[in-house]
Amino acid sequence: MNLAPAFILLGLFAANVPVAFAMAMAALSFFLLSAGPPLTIFVQRLTAATDSFPLLAVPFFIMAGAIMNHAGITRRLIALAEALVGHWRGGLAQTNIVLATLMGGLSASANADAAMQAKMLGPEMIRRGYQASFVAALTATAAVVTPIIPPGIGLIVYGFLADVSVGRLFLGGVVPGLLICAALMLTTAFIARRRGYGAVRERFIERSELGRAFKDAIWGLTIPLFILLGIRFGVFTPTEAGAMTVLYALAVGFLAHGELKLSDLPGIINETVLATSTVMLIICAASAFGFYMSWERIPPQLAAALVTVSDNPWIMLLLINVLLIGVGMLIEGTAALILLAPILVPVVTELGVDPVHFGLVIVVNLTIGGVTPPVGTLMYTTSTILSVRIEQFTREALPLLGALFLVLVLITYFPGLVLALPNALMGGG
C-alpha cells in the first residue's frame, strides 16, 4: 500500500497550503511517483467530478441565498426573529440564533450565513453592550444550524457520495436543526442572565405587530416548505428543487417584495460563481485524491481495520465521532466530508446503522469543526469581520460548543430524532 501521497497531503496541510491545492498536489504526486495509471487519468479525474447531476443543486441553492439577501427576505426574517424573542433577556443574541435557524431554509451555507449575520447584527450587538468576542462566538456557533435545516450543501454532497436519498436527508435534518437552535438559546439565556445582557423590548409585542412581522416574512418562511413538499410528492428532484427555488426567489424579489432590480443580477451571479467555484474546486481535487485511495484499496482496508476494533455499532459511532472531531479541527468540513464519507459509510452500514442517520451525524460533527481552531472557517469568518482575536473567540465559544456537542450525542444515540420525520413522510428505507 503506497502511503506517500497521504503523508504528502498531511505535510501540505501542516504547511497551511489551501485544502483544494493540497489534495490536488498530493494526488498528482501519486501519478508522478508510481508506475501505475498514466498522468492523463489525473486530469480526467479532476474534471469527472463536475459531471454530476446531483451536484447541480449546489450552485442553485447558493444563488437562491444570494437572491434572497438582495430581495429583502433576510431583512424581513430579522424583523420576525426580533419580534419573537426580542423581549427575552439577551434578546438580540436570541434573535441571532433564531435568524440563523430561519436562514437554514434559505442560504444552505454556514459560512455565508455567518458572514451575513456578523455584518448585519454584529455591530448593533456590540453597540448595545455585548462583548465582541461573545458576538463572534455566538454568530459562528449559530451558523452551524444553517446547513442542517434543509437545504444544506453538506447534505447534498453526502447524498451524492453515499448514494443516499437527499430528500430523506433534508427531512432528517429538521429535528437536529431545531435541537441545535433550542440548545444554543438555553445556553445563551444562561450567559445573558449571568452577564446582565438586556432585552430589546420590555415585553412581548402586540399580537397585531407580530402578525405584520409574520405577514412580511411569509414568502421567506414558505421556501423550506416549498422545497420539502416538492421533493416529497415527486414534483421535482433535489437538484430541480434548487432551480425552482431560484425561480421562486426571483419571483418574490421582483413581484412580491419589489426590491430586486435587474442591476442586482450581476452581483448575484458574481457571488454565486465565487462560492460555487470554492466548493467545486475542493470536490474536483478530492476526486483525484479519491482515485489514488481507490487504486491502492485504502478505504476497504481502513474499513476492515475499523470493524476489527468493535462490532458494536454504538461503540463504533463513538470512535467515529472522536475521529471526526479531530479531523474537523484540522481539515475544512467539505473536504473532510468528501475524504471520509466513502471510507466510513460502508463501515457503519455493515454494522446496521442507517446511512441517513449517519449522514446527519457526520455533517453536524464536521460543521461543528468550523467553530474550532486551528482551521475553523466559521471562527475565522466572524472573528475577522468583528476584529476578535482567536484566543478570545475560543474562550467565549466553549459553553456554546458544549451545547452543540450535547445535541451531537443525542442524534448519535437516538436515531429516531433523525429518522422519524423521513420515515413518516417518505416511508422506511
Please provide a written account of the structure.
The protein is mainly alpha-helical. It has one domain. It contains 22 helices and no strands. The protein has helices at 4-14, 19-33, 39-48, 57-70, 73-85, 91-103, 110-120, 122-127, 132-142, 153-162, 166-172, 174-195, 207-232, 238-256, 265-295, 298-309, 313-330, 333-350, 355-368, 377-385, 390-413, 416-426. The protein starts with a helix and ends with a helix.
Instruction: Spell the H/E element sequence.
Output: HHHHHHHHHHHHHHHHHHHHHH
Based on CA inertia axes, which overall geometry fits?
globular
| Count of separate structural domains | 1
Low-pLDDT stretches are: none
Residues in β-strands, percent:
under 5%
Question: What is the total tally of β strands?
Answer: 0
Q: What is Rg?
A: 22 Å
Category by helix and strand content: mainly alpha
Tally the helices: 22
Roughly how much helix do the residues carry, as a percent range? over 70%
Mean pLDDT: 83
Gap between N and C termini, in Å? 36 Å
Q: Largest sheet, described in full?
A: none
Helix/strand layout:
Elements: H1 4-14, H2 19-33, H3 39-48, H4 57-70, H5 73-85, H6 91-103, H7 110-120, H8 122-127, H9 132-142, H10 153-162, H11 166-172, H12 174-195, H13 207-232, H14 238-256, H15 265-295, H16 298-309, H17 313-330, H18 333-350, H19 355-368, H20 377-385, H21 390-413, H22 416-426
Helix pairs in contact: 1-2, 2-3, 2-15, 3-15, 4-14, 4-15, 5-6, 5-13, 6-9, 6-12, 7-9, 7-20, 9-20, 9-21, 10-18, 10-19, 11-22, 12-21, 13-14, 15-18, 16-18, 17-18, 17-19, 18-19, 19-21
